[in-house]
């Protein structure tokens, strides 16, 4: 493996060991860039070896000072009650916060700085990411919105970071999206067509819920972009991952703006938007049902790429991810499509399938859980049965022999009676 180290000097000073998380809070006035980079004197970037057959991609990496913006958004209401305890990007998915999958993929691609466009609980994000910034070796900046700015306005807010002197394109990602993140291939695709913008698309069976992209098959040039069409126009949908030239920022004003409805149609009209079909799996995990489906897709991918990370044994069925600190007693049957987080205790005779058990949870003897999410530090009693997309918030106690048929339970509650039909327990 060839290892490349790029050192980018900002000033004549000694190397600093740790990068810093900055929170930039701006109002509706266009911000100044005068102080944005004063905190970083030097960066150390490690990039993996490159495929020699992809000269375009190699060139992109050797000269990379790439940036990325992740659209974090607001309250995460579709994932409540989990988002009552943590901002949505910090909700665990397959035993680590959702947003880390994207940041790690960007780091592996050669991105040197990630901007988080956020309008809800920025201080929680900052405290969390301070620990991970130095571990990941990438600068992380929070760009705080004083009002919701949609999917394009945050780009204008972070313009002074994204449009630096390098002229490199920058990534934009929707924080709800999980995939195999073929970002290196996307760079090569973007360089090859020479257009102003690239997007990833994926094929789905029900495209009417999404933005549908109609492309020229041979080149990938986008001919039409239709947001949530009422009639069938195609099955390729916007996957929520973009690579944009800095010139796109000139099209965006600092106000609530939709990149899908207001910016992309203009770029399409000038034949400057191209789409690359996403290989592998894709899922928007912003709501519980899709979260569970996304876990299955992720574990399927993990089986193909890193099977050693999955659990094995007579008590395991299919794909199961178990943190090494979790305690699993005898007589359990676990799987398929289960994630068990750090510090969990699974007592004897428990049956788990198609579910997530988050950090610090205790599942008592002979409980049965399927198609559900059990929030942090909750307890499920003996012989309890939890199913049908039940979501337990943080620190919920389910008493012995309780049945939950699709209950959504807010944090710090005790469930003493069965939930016979889907309802919210407040």
UniProtKB/TrEMBL annotation:
Establish whether keyword Isomerase is in the entry: no
List each copy of the Mannose-1-phosphate guanyltransferase C-terminal domain by range: 316-425
InterPro entries referenced in this protein's UniProt entry, alphabetically: GMPPB_C, GMPPB_N, Mannose-1P_guanyltransferase, NTP_transferase_dom, Nucleotide-diphossugar_trans
Q: Which residues form the Nucleotidyl transferase domain?
A: 67-298
Which pathway does it operate in?
Nucleotide-sugar biosynthesis; GDP-alpha-D-mannose biosynthesis; GDP-alpha-D-mannose from alpha-D-mannose 1-phosphate (GTP route): step 1/1
Q: Which GO terms describe its molecular function?
A: GTP binding; mannose-1-phosphate guanylyltransferase (GTP) activity
Q: Name one GO cellular component term.
A: cytoplasm
Q: Its domain of life?
A: Eukaryota
Which EC numbers does the record give? Answer: 2.7.7.13
**Which keywords does the record carry?**
GTP-binding, Nucleotide-binding, Nucleotidyltransferase, Transferase
One of its GO biological process terms is: GDP-mannose biosynthetic process
The EC category is: transferase
How is this protein named in the record?
mannose-1-phosphate guanylyltransferase
What is the scientific name of the source organism? Helianthus annuus (Common sunflower)
């Amino acid at each position: 493996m060839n290892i490349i180290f790029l050192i980018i000097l900002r000033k004549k000073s000694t190397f600093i060991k740790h990068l810093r998380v900055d929170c930039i809070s701006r109002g509706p006035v266009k911000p100044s860039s005068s102080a944005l980079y004063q905190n970083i004197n030097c960066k150390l970037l490690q990039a993996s070896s490159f495929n020699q057959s992809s000269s375009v991609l190699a060139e992109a990496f050797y000269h990379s000072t790439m940036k990325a913006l992740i659209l974090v958004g607001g309250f995460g209401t579709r994932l409540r009650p989990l988002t009552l305890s943590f901002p949505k990007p910090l909700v665990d998915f397959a035993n680590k916060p959702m947003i880390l999958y994207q940041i790690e993929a960007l780091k592996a691609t050669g991105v040197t700085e990630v901007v988080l466009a956020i309008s809800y609980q920025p201080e929680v994000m900052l405290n969390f990411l301070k620990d991970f910034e130095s571990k990941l070796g990438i600068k992380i900046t929070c760009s705080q919105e004083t009002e919701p700015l949609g999917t394009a306005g945050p780009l204008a807010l972070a313009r002074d970071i994204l449009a630096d002197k390098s002229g490199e394109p920058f990534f934009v990602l929707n924080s709800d999206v999980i995939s195999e993140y073929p970002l290196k291939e996307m760079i090569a695709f973007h360089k090859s067509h020479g257009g102003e913008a690239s997007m990833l698309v994926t094929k789905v069976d029900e495209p009417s819920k999404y933005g549908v992209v109609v492309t020229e098959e041979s080149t990938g040039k986008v001919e039409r972009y239709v947001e949530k069409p009422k009639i069938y126009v195609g099955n390729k949908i916007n996957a929520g991952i973009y690579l944009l030239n800095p010139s796109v920022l000139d099209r965006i004003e600092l106000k609530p703006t939709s990149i899908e409805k207001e910016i992309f149609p203009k770029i399409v009209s000038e034949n400057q938007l191209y789409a690359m079909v996403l290989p592998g799996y894709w899922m928007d995990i912003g709501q519980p049902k899709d979260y569970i489906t996304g876990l299955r897709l992720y574990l399927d991918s993990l089986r193909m790429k890193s099977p050693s990370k999955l659990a094995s044994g007579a008590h395991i069925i299919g794909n199961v991810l178990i943190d090494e600190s979790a305690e699993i007693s005898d007589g359990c049957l676990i799987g398929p499509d289960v994630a068990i987080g750090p510090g969990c205790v699974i007592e004897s005779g428990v049956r788990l399938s198609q579910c997530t058990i988050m950090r610090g949870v205790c599942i008592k003897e002979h409980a049965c859980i399927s198609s559900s999410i059990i929030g942090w530090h909750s307890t499920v009693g003996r012989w309890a049965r939890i199913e049908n997309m039940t979501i337990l918030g943080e620190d919920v106690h389910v008493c012995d022999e309780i049945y939950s048929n699709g209950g959504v339970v807010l944090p710090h509650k005790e469930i003493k009676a069965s939930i016979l039909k889907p309802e919210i327990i407040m």
